Amino acid sequence: MQPPRILITPGEPAGIGPDLVLRLAQEAWPAELIAVCDPQLLRERALALGLPIALEEIGLDADPELHEPGFLSVLPVSMAVPSVPGRLDPANAAYVLETLRTAVGACLDKRAQALVTGPVQKSLINDAGHPFSGHTEFIADLTHAPTPVMMLVADTLRVALVTTHLPLRDVPAAITKHSVERTLRVLWADLRSRFDIQSPRILVCGLNPHAGEGGHLGREEIDAILPAIEELRVAGLDIIGPLPADTLFTPARLAGADAVLAMFHDQGLPVLKHASFGEAVNLTLGLPIIRTSVDHGTALDLAGSGHADAGSLHAALLMAIDMARKLAA
After folding, report:
1. pLDDT of 151-162, one tens digit each?
2. Are residues 24 and 133 in the same domain?
3. What is the 8-class DSSP label of residue 3?
4. How many CB atoms lie within 10 A of CB 35?
């Protein structure tokens, strides 16, 4: 069996993404690694970090070959202007998006088996005039995926979200029976197909304090969340909720659960990141391709310093390779 071909987009060129990719390139991997970026960026950052690296610009027509430590294949995409570590430049916002378009296109064409993404600076991309709420939504648009689901994984704790990058004031209107049900269906299906969990048990958070307190603290649980759960239970899915989020994440409640569905970004992710920040993996479910990512941002203050922790990218790459190999088996 050929090794899987894994594409890596380093993300914001002024951030730590290029540093982390270069660090991982020093290790042996049971896959072919290809960075989708400007090779000059990697050359300059490797020099700043004192990391030995041999870069080879390639296409995707040849058969994949196992990665060798100290070497890195690059699918070139040119920056608009040179990048300085820690110094954002809106001129390179379009470049960041083009690396994603190139990588996603290659995965859709089956010329690569998975995509691992480094951190991007959302605010810069928007300030440059490109509407962008995040990797999850952007890649979903590129792949025409109707229901992308963000899930973070830290060891055995998996937390998925109904809503992702929305202002808090817009969340209640987005919590509908339809949105909860379709998210649960994607989560259940991908736990089976990507994690080999044949009968997933999913815990569902309520939106309001105390899961609405019987309607006294909000009706989203009664009008949207519970009806979605009950319909899926009838279909045979093992789903429990809605549960108060402040007690759902206790060890006794999580015992035996395969995933938690939170209603919004800052309901579930602070708990997971408190448990494993820098080691967790951001995974997009509901896509026709495999996409994993880091659990952190661009860390501009650490770019080019040699002090950035590659733990999350390491975990994201391992997960992408494992999923790609399972898919090929």
Report:
1. 999 988 999 999
2. yes
3. P
4. 29
